[in-house]
Design goal:
Layout lengths: L1 H19 L48 H16 L19 H8 L4 H28 L2 H12 L3 H8 L5 H11 L1 H20 L3 H27 L8 H69 L10
Length: 322
């Protein structure tokens, strides 16, 4: 369990760090607020005469005497065109977020509202439990030893309980562990020893199933709570006409995102929960079958020994004479 918990805890810390980082403020371009070039001048219309003060000298672009304004217009435009050109606008800087700031999933998480944090914790716990159970049942599959179980039953059938106990000792198969516990306590209480050993094995197999059952029920309830809080947030902005549309839309999006996440986690946890529950039921059936066979075989062996002992016992009493 610790091997699975450490990477899940690291992933949780990474997710919390990336979600806590807020996007940086957009940078403004220095060229956007730069003053106009000192050499730039307003271009006059071709048909309008240049206005001059009485005592000012003649400026470039003024119409000399004897020349029409239309003939002097091209020279004026050519003289003023280099200074009138403005530099191209600089591209705007995009806001940079955290490690996963541009991720679609992180954006939806923020839009889901504060109820998304409990939903995130529930999802991490559910994922950890599912991974741990997968590893345990994979090891259980490799620990199965049906051939040794057959050898144990064969030894008991031939009346060699010592050999049967030796074969079942030190095994990692739950069935063999239960049989070894029963063989070692057959003279005291065989049925009680088998029941205790079977209960221990079933408890190991059903570990964390209660947690998964709780998550299957809790995740939709958290989604429903997010739906209610989102709708409350939407209706609280209905009085403001300026922000009504945007706020109501954001509240409805929060409600739908929280509901979808809660249902998704419940569906994700329900499928492995049912699978692991069926595996526990199969293991319980195997343990009950092995315990019943062991009781029947040991009971038959004990009855045969009693009959044999009764046949070998001497007959007491003397015959009476008439």
């Amino acid at each position: 369990m610790s091997i699975v918990t450490v990477p899940c805890a690291c992933s949780l810390a990474l997710a919390l760090t990336s979600l806590a980082q807020s996007p940086a403020a957009p940078q403004t371009s220095p060229a956007a607020g730069a003053p106009a070039a000192p050499g730039a001048a307003a271009v006059t219309s071709p048909g309008a005469p240049a206005a001059m003060s009485p005592g000012a000298p003649a400026q470039m672009g003024s119409v000399p005497p004897g020349q029409s304004p239309a003939a002097a217009a091209p020279a004026t435009t050519a003289a003023l065109s280099p200074a009138a050109e403005s530099p191209p606008p600089a591209p705007e800087a995009t806001p940079s977020g955290g490690i996963l700031g541009s991720n679609w999933l992180i954006d939806k998480f923020h839009k889901g509202g504060p109820i998304m944090w409990p939903i995130l914790i529930v999802s991490i716990v559910g994922l950890t439990v599912v991974i741990e159970r997968i590893f345990w049942w994979s090891g259980r599959w490799f620990r199965r030893d049906p051939k040794r179980i057959e050898k144990v039953f064969t030894a008991i059938e031939h009346g060699d309980t010592t050999e049967a106990s030796r074969l079942s000792r030190g095994s990692r198969d739950p069935v063999l562990r239960m049989m070894w516990n029963g063989l070692n306590h057959q003279h005291a209480s065989l049925q009680g020893a088998l029941q205790v050993a079977a209960g221990i094995e079933i408890k190991r197999a059903g570990r964390f199933l209660v947690v998964m059952d709780t998550l299957v029920t809790l995740a939709p309830l958290l989604g429903l709570l997010g739906t209610i809080t989102g709708l409350i947030r939407s209706f609280s902005f209905l009085g403001n006409e300026e922000l009504a549309v945007q706020a109501v839309t954001g509240g409805i999006a929060e409600a739908l995102i929280a509901t979808a996440c809660g249902l998704g986690i419940a569906i994700f946890a329900l499928i492995p929960f049912n699978f692991f529950t069926s595996r526990v039921a199969n293991l319980e059936f195997e343990l009950q079958t092995a315990a019943t066979n062991l009781e029947v075989m040991l009971g038959a062996q004990t009855a045969a020994e009693e009959i044999k002992f009764a046949g070998q016992a001497p007959v007491s009493g003397k015959g009476s004479s008439i």
